[in-house]
Structure formats: C-alpha cells, structure tokens
C-alpha cells in the first residue's frame, strides 16, 4: 500500500462532525482548499496524490453529516470535489494491492454515506478498478445482489452498489449481461440505463442506442440530459442536421440565455448564428425579452430592440446597454433606454429604486441629444409617465419629474 510521506493539512479540517448545521459555506471553502492541496501534490507524485484523494473521499460524509445541505450549494461543491478527485485515483500508477486497498476503503465510505454524497464514485467504479480483471471480480461479487434487488416484487428495494455493478460490467465488456440486467427494473431510470446506452455504443449499434435512450424517458427523468446523449450519438455519426433538428435546442445548457446560445453555436459551427438565435427564440415563447442581451452581443441591434419590446426584459440590462452603446450605436442606445423606462413603468425589475429610473432617463436623453431628438424623446417619456395612475407609472413619473423640468 502507498504510504503518504506528505503531511496533509486537510485531514484536521475533516474530522467527524467537524461542521455544524449552518457551516455550509465554510465546508464548501474547505473542500476547495483540500482539492487544491491534493492536486498540487498529485502533480509531483500521482500515487501520493491519489492516496490523499481516497482519504478525503472517505472523510466527506463523517465531516459533513450535520451540515444543512438544503440549498444545494454543498451538494454541488461535493460533486465538483469528486469530479476533480476521481480522475486522480483512476490515473494513479498504483499496483493491484494498493488499488485494492483504495477500493475497499471507498466501498466502506459509500456504505456509511448517509445521503449518497459518493454516488459519483460508484458511477465510475469500473474505471477505478483500473483493469478488466479487477472490475470482473467486483461485478461477480455485486451482480447477484443487484439482480435480487431489481427482481424483488416489493417496490422500494435499493442497492447502493447498483451503478458500481453496471460500471464494472461495462468495463469488462459483458454487454449482453448488462442489457439483460437493465430489463429487470419495473420503471426505467436514466441513472442506470445510460450504461445500456454505452453498451450499445460499444457494440457499434448507434441507432439502437438512440432508441434505448429515448425509451428511458418518464416521470422524473432528466429529459435534457437524455437529449444531450442522443445528440452526441447523432453528431458522432455525422448526422449534424438530424441532431440539430431533434435535439440541438432542447440539449442547450447554460446558466444564462447567452450561455445556451453559445453551447448550441459551439456544437454546430456550420449553422448561421442568426438562425440558431431565431430557433432558440421560437423555442421559448413568452421569453423573447430574455434573449435581448444575446442579440445585442451578436450585433443584431434591430432584433435586440424588437425582443426587448415583445416581452419583459430586465430594465437594468437595458440601461447598461444604452450606456455602453451610446457612442457607437446611439439609435440602439435610445431604444434600449426607452424600453427600460417602459418596463419600469409596468412594474418590472428586481430591487429597483428611483436611481435606476433616473439612470434610464439620463441615458435616453444622452442618446436623444446625439440624434437631435431631445424634445421628441422628452415628450415621449412624459406621455409614458402619464399613461395611467398605477403604482409603477406613478413611481417612474415622480422619479423623473425633476429631471424633465430641468431639461425643458
């Protein structure tokens, strides 16, 4: 077994019960620090680094057991941690005795894990075994338990080693056995059936793999993830047009609208960007205004203003655009500022104050001055502020009254 000659810092910070109920942020920080320490060591000595990775994974549940994870932040941090650590263990040049020791320790950690933090470890168990022979022994040990669990007529049976078994069967090339086993569960689960997709791909049966993935849909199944898998299969087959038509838009991922656009554009560089954007807009009816920033960044200024007026768009985003494009695109800047005032007068915006209203008004008047339209724009804004007596309109009217008097 590999013996660490490195004096680790992180173990003292991951004692059992080290973190209290409200210590989620601190725990996330300590995880990042531990990963950084392990990566640094692994660059110099992969074997010692892998030993540290196994050690940290074994401490995750005991240390974090009492932390409130309801926000999801801690779970995301643990997943990120495991995503960084697992490859270190997989790629370590360990002999069979050392790796066997690691696997035994990780298996015990998974059995003790009260909330399945270590699920990603089981998902890649076949890779962690590092050889078909070792993976085959684990598969032989686990398969009967999994078959019994999935054959149980009473619902609710669960085996924490399910994906570990499937991963080992996949690694050892026992594709037929894997596919037969996946027919046993009463309800399809993508978490398990994705191994069936990989088995069919390994057999060169790509069309069947797409059909198999499609058949995995159902209640509480991740449609977007299934779409991504199907899309990738079609792209790998050279069927880009079909992949785009069937999955390109629904498989788009990103934490913002422009990130979603970029993810599609990256996978389909042969597609016209305006066409991609138009398709994404059409696929999200009622959300046209949220594509404003994307259209603006792509230089489609007329489309951006059209989108900003078709459905609500964040007033602060519109005002920033008016400020940033005042010199280069004053017509666009004016339209963005007027749109910001419009949505403010309709009650849209997050934590809006009178300062935001004045900022939008000032940017509109700056653009109007460049376009020699000061009187027309001032009158247009006045009419907007007198359109009704609802609370939002009154709020906007009062915010700009002093400014309008000063500019008349």
Report the β-strand fraction as a percent range. under 5%
Give average pLDDT, whole number: 94
Main sheet specs = none
Radius of gyration: 28 Å
Oligomeric state of the chains in view: single chain
Number of domains: 2
Annotation field: number of helices? 22
Shape: elongated
What's the count of strands?
0
- Span from first to last CA? 83 Å
Secondary structure elements and their pairing?
Elements: H1 24-44, H2 46-64, H3 73-90, H4 96-112, H5 119-123, H6 125-129, H7 132-151, H8 162-171, H9 175-181, H10 190-202, H11 206-214, H12 223-236, H13 240-248, H14 257-267, H15 273-282, H16 292-297, H17 301-310, H18 315-324, H19 330-345, H20 354-370, H21 374-385, H22 391-407
Helix pairs in contact: 1-2, 1-3, 2-3, 2-4, 7-8, 8-10, 9-10, 10-11, 11-12, 12-13, 17-19, 18-19, 18-20, 19-20, 20-21, 20-22, 21-22
Summarize the structure.
With 408 residues, the protein is mostly helical.
Summary tags:
22 helices; 408 residues; single chain; elongated; 68% helix; mainly alpha
Structure in words:
This protein is an all-alpha fold. It folds into 2 domains: 206 residues, no CATH class; 94 residues, no CATH class. The protein is 68% helix and 0% strand. α2 packs antiparallel against α3, α19 runs antiparallel to α20 and α20 packs antiparallel against α21. The longest helix is centred in the first third of the chain and has 21 residues. The radius of gyration is 28 Å and the shape is elongated. The mean pLDDT is 94.
């Amino acid at each position: 077994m590999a013996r660490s000659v490195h004096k680790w810092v992180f173990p003292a910070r991951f004692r059992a019960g080290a973190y209290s109920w409200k210590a989620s942020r601190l725990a996330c920080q300590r995880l990042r620090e531990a990963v950084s320490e392990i990566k640094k060591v692994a660059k110099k000595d992969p074997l010692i680094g892998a030993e540290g990775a196994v050690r940290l994974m074994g401490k995750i549940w005991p240390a974090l057991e009492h932390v409130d994870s309801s926000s999801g932040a801690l779970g995301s941090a643990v997943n990120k941690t495991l995503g960084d650590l697992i490859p270190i263990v997989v790629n370590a040049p360990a002999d069979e005795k050392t790796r066997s020791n690691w696997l035994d320790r990780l298996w015990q950690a998974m059995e003790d894990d009260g909330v399945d933090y270590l699920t990603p470890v089981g998902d890649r168990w076949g890779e962690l075994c590092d050889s078909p022979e070792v993976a085959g022994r684990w598969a032989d040990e686990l398969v009967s338990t999994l078959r019994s669990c999935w054959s149980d007529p009473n619902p609710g049976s669960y085996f924490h080693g399910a994906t570990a078994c499937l991963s080992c069967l996949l690694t050892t090339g026992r594709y037929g056995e894997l596919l037969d086993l996946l027919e046993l569960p009463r309800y399809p689960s993508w978490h398990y059936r994705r191994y069936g997709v990989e088995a069919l791909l390994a057999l060169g049966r790509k069309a069947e793999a797409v059909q198999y993935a499609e058949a995995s849909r159902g209640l509480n199944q991740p449609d977007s993830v299934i779409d991504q898998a199907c899309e990738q299969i079609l792209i790998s087959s050279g069927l880009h047009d079909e992949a785009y038509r069937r999955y390109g838009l629904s498989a788009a991922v990103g934490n913002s609208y422009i990130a979603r656009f970029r993810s599609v554009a990256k996978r389909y560089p042969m597609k016209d960007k305006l066409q991609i954007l138009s398709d994404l807009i059409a696929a999200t009816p009622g959300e046209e205004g949220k594509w404003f920033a994307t259209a603006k960044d792509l230089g489609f200024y007329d489309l951006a203003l059209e989108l900003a007026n078709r459905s609500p768009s964040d007033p602060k985003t519109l005002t920033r655009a008016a400020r940033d494009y005042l010199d280069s695109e004053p017509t666009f800047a004016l339209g963005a500022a007027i749109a910001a005032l419009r949505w403010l007068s309709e009650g849209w915006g997050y934590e809006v104050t009178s300062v935001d209203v004045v900022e939008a008004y000032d940017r509109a008047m700056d653009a109007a001055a460049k376009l020699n339209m000061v009187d027309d724009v001032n009158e247009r804004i006045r009419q907007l502020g007198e359109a009704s007596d609802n609370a939002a309109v009154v709020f906007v009217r009062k915010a700009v009254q002093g400014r309008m008097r000063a500019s008349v």
